[in-house]
Design a protein that fits this description.
alpha/beta; about 35% helix; disordered N terminus
Length: about 240
């Protein structure tokens, strides 16, 4: 059965759907992408999804889920229902509506997001591998993810790059500086502990929340700092 077609999320006064493009590269950290996707959809945002070939191997390794172009809607639902701790149905009861997700195959260089005339709000690469960072920094377009990132930069749209790697080589640091100078937000997947995390999902959601903060998308993924020492523990 064909997946439902996306509803229209119109930009004010344009009558055009304007999604966020979420690119998932091959770095470890597929729970970060799942958290970002759930939060975007809960916020009422439309999403165009590009899952790279390398990321499918990572997803299979980290979750046991095989992401297939022909069955992407079913596979995406299984992925988003899964918790960062491996619980397969943790978010099943609260899954957002997936009808406004549009999937593009990574090898489809004729896809909508490959053109600057295709209306989008911006792009979030979560997680971003060093290979992905290098390709985008050098302006390569070896696949749809890199091409869309290049288009995002040239059109001066928001680009958030959530790097997931450690340690960093000098060459990668140069690439990150180049992305910053080109206007991207370089956001390392670096969890913080002041929000009172008690489980893996809390740490994942913190990083996802910071990605959405950089994009200007409202969410309730983590407890914000309010200036009170010990506030995350409920200390007086």
């Amino acid at each position: 059965m064909e997946p439902p077609q996306p509803r229209s999320k119109d930009a004010p006064g344009t009558g055009q759907r304007r999604p966020w493009v979420v690119g998932v590269s091959g770095a470890s950290g597929t729970p970060y992408a799942a958290s970002v996707l759930r939060a975007l959809l809960h916020a009422g945002e439309a999403v165009d999804l590009v899952v790279s070939r390398a990321s499918r191997l990572t997803l299979l390794d980290e979750t046991g889920i095989a992401f297939r172009d022909a069955h992407w809607h079913e596979d995406l639902r299984r992925w988003l229902a899964r918790g960062a701790d491996g619980t397969p149905d943790r978010f099943e009861a609260t899954l957002p509506d997936l009808s406004d997700v549009r999937h593009w195959a990574p090898g489809d260089l004729a896809a909508g997001p490959s053109s600057g005339s295709y209306p989008v709000k911006g792009m979030l690469i979560v997680p971003a591998s060093t290979a992905c960072v290098a390709g985008v920094a050098l302006g390569l377009s070896k696949d749809l993810l890199q091409r869309t990132a290049s288009v995002t930069l040239k059109e001066r749209r928001p680009l958030v790059v959530a790097l997931r790697e450690t340690p960093l080589s000098g060459q990668t640091l140069k690439h990150l500086v180049a992305l910053d100078q080109a206007g991207a937000v370089v956001l390392p997947a670096s969890p913080a502990f002041y929000a009172g995390a008690t489980q893996i999902q809390d740490l994942v959601d913190f990083v996802a929340g910071r990605v959405l903060d950089a994009a200007g998308v409202p969410h309730k993924l983590y407890r914000r700092w309010e200036g009170a020492i010990g506030g995350s523990r409920g200390d007086d």
